[in-house]
Amino acid sequence: MQLKPQDFLVALKLVAWGDQRWTYARLALELGISVSEAHACIKRGLQAGLLLPNREPPPQPADVGRSTTPGVQEPAAIYRVTRKRARRSALPDSDAPADNAVRPHAHNLAEFALHGAKYAFPAVKLPLVVGVPTSHSAPAFADVFAPGSIDFVWPHPNGTVRGVGLEPLHPSVPFAAMQDAKLYEMLALFDALRVGKARERGMALVRLQALIDPDTPQPAKGPMYG
């Protein structure tokens, strides 16, 4: 099993949604991928340990494994048990489960995002282009860094900023980011880890950790250089 960029994207989207109810159809729609690919991403995310299942396997009946051959004291065909058919309106909607099928494994996902993903999915810089700002140029860094540094952008025909092109984690990233501000912030912070300077990377580490795994104690703040 090889983890794909869209698997990481799906995991971050689930972080952005938090406790919201979601369906595979909605996941696919907001990320610009197919429903079948959304299912495949969830499957690989579970295998990689980036996601956790929300449902436990159903308990097995106590008499499973026993012989069904009737004994001397249990003549066959005396009792006939029938199962009532549930009304269609009472059946759960397979596309809208009572609980989401999976949830992010906060610790593992944060560890991968901060220390492994930039090596699994290295940054690819492109020529100057108009696109959607990312890394320190994104809204997540507004009023944090002084203007004047080189802007990084995901190439996109509807972009408004000209800067150094940065190949997005997945082709659908610019579209997906514009649908969800929190997802956009996490993707931009991830790009800061890939292409940012020391100060930008230091800030991105702290903020991305807090977004993905907020229960982890944050280190004491000190002067940042770079």
Instruction: Calculate the terminal CA-CA distance, rounded to whole Å.
Output: 38 Å
User: Could you name the ranges where pLDDT drops below 50 across 5 or more consecutive residues?
Assistant: 67-98
Question: Beta-strand level of the residues, as a percent range?
Answer: 5-15%
Shape: globular
Helix content: 25-40%
Explain how this protein is built.
The radius of gyration is 24 Å and the shape is globular. It is α+β, with helices and mostly antiparallel strands and 226 residues long. The chain contains 8 helices and 5 strands. The protein folds into 2 domains: 5-56 and 94-117, Arc Repressor Mutant, subunit A, CATH 1.10.10.10; 122-212, no CATH class. Strands 3, 4 and 5 form a 3-stranded mixed β-sheet that branches. The chain has a two-stranded antiparallel ribbon with strand order 1-2.
Topology:
Layout: H1 5-17, H2 24-31, H3 35-48, E1 51-53, E2 102-104, H4 106-115, H5 117-120, E3 125-134, E4 152-155, E5 161-166, H6 173-179, H7 181-195, H8 198-212
Parallel strand pairs: 4-5
Antiparallel strand pairs: 1-2, 3-4, 3-5
Helix pairs in contact: 1-3, 1-7, 2-3, 4-8, 6-7, 7-8
Features:
226 residues, Arc Repressor Mutant, subunit A, 2 domains, 3-stranded mixed sheet, two-stranded antiparallel ribbon, globular
Summarize this entry quickly.
This protein is of the alpha+beta class. The protein contains 8 helices and 5 strands, in the order αααββααβββααα. It has 2 domains: 5-56 and 94-117, Winged helix-like DNA-binding domain superfamily/Winged helix DNA-binding domain (Arc Repressor Mutant, subunit A, Orthogonal Bundle), CATH 1.10.10; 122-212, no CATH class.
